[in-house]
Amino acid sequence: MIVTLGLLLVLQAVAGMIWTAEPRSFPYAFDFRGAFSPAALFTVLVVVAAAAAILLLFKATPLGLRMRAAAFRPEVAALVGVRVGRMLTIGWTLAAAVGALAGLLAAPPFIHPTVMDTVFVYALTAAVIGGLDNPVGTVIGGFLLGVVLSLVSGYLGAELVTLAALAILVVVLSVRPDGLFGQRVARRV
């Protein structure tokens, strides 16, 4: 994770040097009027479709079975003929594609190199709250974080929301480093 954060900072700095750090705007693809706009409906449908496709991939295809085997028991998977390196590469590619999709759906109508930093803080906090090894816990952690941050925004002000997310992250890591729904793994030396 630390290497990823460092790489993020380097890439943001390089992007700022190449294209400037000035925000550039672009129009929304859909109208944002109403309580539940077409853009919000589109986002929800794309997220549900992507989640269903990933679930089907991992639960109902031979490729998904090989990817799970390579992730959880690489030695055993290699013994039965699974190319572990290839499965890990496919997994990282899939993660990059889903991350890019999430970035497209969450981006505001202006863009600059550091535009997604707050989204990154919220996503990391939700994942830590739920447990980094528990996808369902991460979703629950995201809902809990969303409720708490809405309360912070309503009662204390919107300018404290990111600070509150970071404070929650520090508290959860201090009290329960594996997250609320994560499983403690004993490590052998």
TrEMBL record:
> Where would you find the membrane-spanning parts of this chain?
39-58, 87-107, 119-149, 156-175
> Keyword RNA-binding, does the record have it?
no
Q: Does the keyword Cell inner membrane apply?
A: no
Q: Where in the cell is it found?
A: Cell membrane
Q: Topologically, how does it sit relative to the membrane?
A: Multi-pass membrane protein
Q: Which domain of life is it from?
A: Bacteria
Q: Please name the PANTHER family in this protein's record.
A: ABC TRANSPORTER PERMEASE PROTEIN (PTHR11795:SF451), BRANCHED-CHAIN AMINO ACID TRANSPORT SYSTEM PERMEASE PROTEIN LIVH (PTHR11795)
By sequence similarity, the record places it as follows:
Belongs to the binding-protein-dependent transport system permease family. LivHM subfamily.
Q: What is this protein called?
A: Branched-chain amino acid ABC transporter permease
Organism expressing this protein natively: Actinokineospora soli
